[in-house]
Structures are given as C-alpha cells and as structure tokens.
Amino acid sequence: MSDSPTVICAQPDAGERAETADALADAGLAVEEVGSVETLTEALDRSVDCVVTAFDFPDGDGFDVVDAVRSVNPACVVALYTEHAPSDLPRGSPEQVVEYVPRTVPESRERLADVAAMAAAEGTQAAYPVPETETERLAAVERYDVDQLAALDAFDRLTALMNSHFDIDVAFVGLMDEHEERFVACEGANWRTLAREDTICTHTILTDETMVVEDTHEDPRFAEVDALKQLDIRSYAGVRLTDEEGNAIGAVCCTDSEPRRYTQAELDDLQRFAAEVKEQLLFRRQLQEDA
C-alpha cells in the first residue's frame, strides 16, 4: 500500500476525471477514480484523506457527496471542483471542512491539486476560494503600494472613526494579494498581514453584498480557524473594495471579541466608509502613477 495521502477523484466524465487524477498524482497523492455518487460511497473508508469531486452526477450531486463523506469520515476534507457559484454549494461544519475550487480559474487543476495535498497533509481548513477573475484581480492589486498607503494619515483617520462609530475592537482596511491580506490601516490592533486562508476577507471579496458573521464560533467556515481565535475575532462585518474596473482588491472591515449583530443603518454606514476608502485609494494610486 502506498504511503502517499489517499484522495478519491469523483467526476462523471471519464476524460475529465483522468486529467484531474493526473494532476493529483503529480502532486504526490495516491488517487482512486470514481464516476458516480454510488461508487464514491462504496470506496469511502476512514483511510481516505480527501475527496475531490464534481457537483453534478447522474445519480446525485455535491450535497449527496458531502453527506456520504460526513457519515463515514467527517474529518475527511471535501474539495468541490465545479463551475457552480459558492452560494449554491454545500457548506461544511465544525467537524467537516468543505473547500471550493472553481473550474474557471487559470490552472484550476493545479490549484485543486494544491488544495487536496494541503488537506490530506493537515486535515484542517486547506485553502481558500478565489474569484473567477483572480488573475486580473491580482494585477489590479499590484498597482497599489501598500507600504506607501500605510504611511498616510487618511486611512488611519477613517479606521479610527469607524472604531468609535461602531464601538468595536478593531477596524481595518486590507488589500488582498495572492497569499495574504496586507493591512493599509488598522485601528485597535497592530496587525500587519494575515494569511489568506485565515482571513474572513477571503470570502468578502467574492461578493458585492456586505459580509456579516455574527459569531465565528457558529459559522462552519471559520469555527476551526486558529488565527481568528488567536486574534480574538468573534464577530465580523466587511465590505468589498473594488477598483474602477470592478476588480476586488480588498475590504473595509469591523471585528469584535463578542458575538454581534449589525443594524441595517450600521451596515449602510459601513458601506459609506468603504466608498470613502475606495475614493482615497483611487486618488492615491493616481497620484503615485502620475509621479
């Protein structure tokens, strides 16, 4: 028997399944291929470290896969590899991690293999969802000099106002690069960076709606993230920041050490703060590029 971590690759199309299995094998994983929910269920046992799966099958879908894995081995990570939007997909639980890798991103199979390898090795939150326009988004972020922005008083004043206005522990402005969130301003704490797999803003940049987590301990996406516990982040509200072309570059956020609900008026105010930050970022970038 191989000493390599074991991954089940479940896709109904044999050709696509073979390509995915090859990418997983290239990452050093022992791969078992299946083409249906039924055969996946038959192959499951507690020795399986990760399940990489499509969403649509002739005999079921991703919800059935997640349920099957949970019933046999809740510690096994499920990585959904699909074109479906994250809002349409099953979520994990405090006992079970469910990851999402969109098929539409560049080199998606290689990214999927990285997720599976990390999941098999660690058995914890393995990776993070990325926007479909990740390549363009990263190019947009590179246009901003975070160190230069962090030296400006304008963003410090805005986060200080946010901290006082919402009566929270921490208010911050962060830009999201390929592997970490870098803080332009942070009132109430001395945070400089946070790994992308550990920050709630990883999810905030995926939606144009205000991201609210009333209690991280009750949200399966964040309940087992050690970094959030270490930073004493129990509640969160954040608004995505975009450039003039609509690329998600970061977020404006509030965190607190206690569970918290936000009124609609407070969420509207947070949107206004984010709009001001967005204008300041654009203005500062234009000054930098014109210099």
TrEMBL record:
Question: Organism's domain of life?
Answer: Archaea
Matching SUPFAM superfamilies? CheY-like, GAF domain-like
Whether Magnesium counts among this entry's keywords is no
InterPro entries, alphabetized: CheY-like_superfamily (IPR011006), GAF (IPR003018), GAF-like_dom_sf (IPR029016), Sig_transdc_resp-reg_receiver (IPR001789)
Q: Which GO terms describe its biological process?
A: phosphorelay signal transduction system
Q: Which GO terms describe its molecular function?
A: kinase activity
Response regulatory domain residues are 6-118
Provide the alphabetized UniProt keywords.
Kinase, Transferase
Question: Per its UniProt record, what Pfam families does this chain match?
Answer: GAF
Q: What's the protein here called?
A: GAF domain-containing protein
Q: What is the lineage of its organism?
A: Archaea, Methanobacteriati, Methanobacteriota, Stenosarchaea group, Halobacteria
